[in-house]
């Protein structure tokens, strides 16, 4: 179905998503002009009295989740916009921690369509406007926006946030954001606003981020200068910021850096979240597809690690609990990713490789993954498969109860395995 079809009231959400996917001539078209015109017409630029916006190469989703859970526990009415989704489009918008019914999304997409006045919108721009529309109708106190790509020209940046966060800065999406960390940092810092806090969780912050903060007169709060966090012992950590020290915090299930960045932003916001809530809820926070332990015997771990930074973190956490256990890796990676950079951190951790071809123009062939492994002198125990399903089924067949099956490499790979597990009641 292409954009030449006229939307009608009987359309399903799947119909709508197909429509908005083909509406614009470019899949990714970084610009604020078109999306801002529609947002202004519908009065969507202030979706809540308080807004957080979160950018970063890795860690955006878990940082948003940490803010969401702590604010909900404190009694605030909270909306979250995140992307991409794993299995269902409805995952992209949460209000009070809950996904909305498809009918509400359909109604919201219809509103955007009826008011765009033939302005061409990309899939992400259309869905961002729809999310803002849903938030504006929900009487929220706080909205948390996850940046899709970069920051400066991302559709989410039409909203003037009260606090901006950058979780990390790595080499990803270089064709859009620039070839080095200075350029990428400059793009991500585009979400900063004058006289508003800008929290940076990246330890090695490019100087370009400070330059943009100064240009915009943002209040830069830099890690290891204005705040820091560190593990105290095997079970606790400490945060130090401009408001003092909070020590003896239980270790988190999400990356400590992301938990700390969220906590600094929350304390800087001066929203009323008690230390008791922080201590109780922060260690409980997790997010699907982020080192998600989903089954035992064998243990199944799902992780959407798709760039070197995320793969290094995944490798650091991948410790077989039973000495005799083996690690079986089901991997599928998109063509525009640093394939060797994603695979290499896991070479010494994985015993068996199941390389899957991913569908679509961005998908990498399994034999290309195999070639990358061979270049890293990983030639034993490697197999190629036509698709993720075949790779997953073989990994299950060959694994033993004491083993680990790791599924990683892209959102698409993890989402497919999640769907297979749900269909077979394997969860």
TrEMBL record:
It holds the Pfam family Mur_ligase_C. One of its GO terms (biological process) is tetrahydrofolate biosynthetic process. One of its GO terms (cellular component) is cytoplasm. Its cofactor is Mg(2+). One of its GO terms (molecular function) is ATP binding. Monomer. It comes from Candidatus Pantoea carbekii. Pathway: Cofactor biosynthesis; tetrahydrofolylpolyglutamate biosynthesis; Cofactor biosynthesis; tetrahydrofolate biosynthesis; 7,8-dihydrofolate from 2-amino-4-hydroxy-6-hydroxymethyl-7,8-dihydropteridine diphosphate and 4-aminobenzoate: step 2/2. Keywords: ATP-binding, Folate biosynthesis, Ligase, Magnesium, Metal-binding, Nucleotide-binding. Residues 289-411 form the Mur ligase C-terminal domain. NCBIfam families: folC, PRK10846.1. The lineage of its organism: Bacteria, Pseudomonadati, Pseudomonadota, Gammaproteobacteria, Enterobacterales. InterPro entries: Folylpolyglutamate_synth (IPR001645), Folylpolyglutamate_synth_CS (IPR018109), Mur-like_cat_sf (IPR036565), Mur_ligase_C (IPR004101), Mur_ligase_C_dom_sf (IPR036615), Mur_ligase_cen (IPR013221). Residues 54-206 form the Mur ligase central domain. This is Dihydrofolate synthase/folylpolyglutamate synthase. It catalyses: 7,8-dihydropteroate + L-glutamate + ATP = 7,8-dihydrofolate + ADP + phosphate + H(+); (6R)-5,10-methylenetetrahydrofolyl-(gamma-L-Glu)(n) + L-glutamate + ATP = (6R)-5,10-methylenetetrahydrofolyl-(gamma-L-Glu)(n+1) + ADP + phosphate + H(+); (6S)-5,6,7,8-tetrahydrofolyl-(gamma-L-Glu)(n) + L-glutamate + ATP = (6S)-5,6,7,8-tetrahydrofolyl-(gamma-L-Glu)(n+1) + ADP + phosphate + H(+); 10-formyltetrahydrofolyl-(gamma-L-Glu)(n) + L-glutamate + ATP = 10-formyltetrahydrofolyl-(gamma-L-Glu)(n+1) + ADP + phosphate + H(+). Functions in two distinct reactions of the de novo folate biosynthetic pathway. Catalyzes the addition of a glutamate residue to dihydropteroate (7,8-dihydropteroate or H2Pte) to form dihydrofolate (7,8-dihydrofolate monoglutamate or H2Pte-Glu). Also catalyzes successive additions of L-glutamate to tetrahydrofolate or 10-formyltetrahydrofolate or 5,10-methylenetetrahydrofolate, leading to folylpolyglutamate derivatives. Belongs to the folylpolyglutamate synthase family.
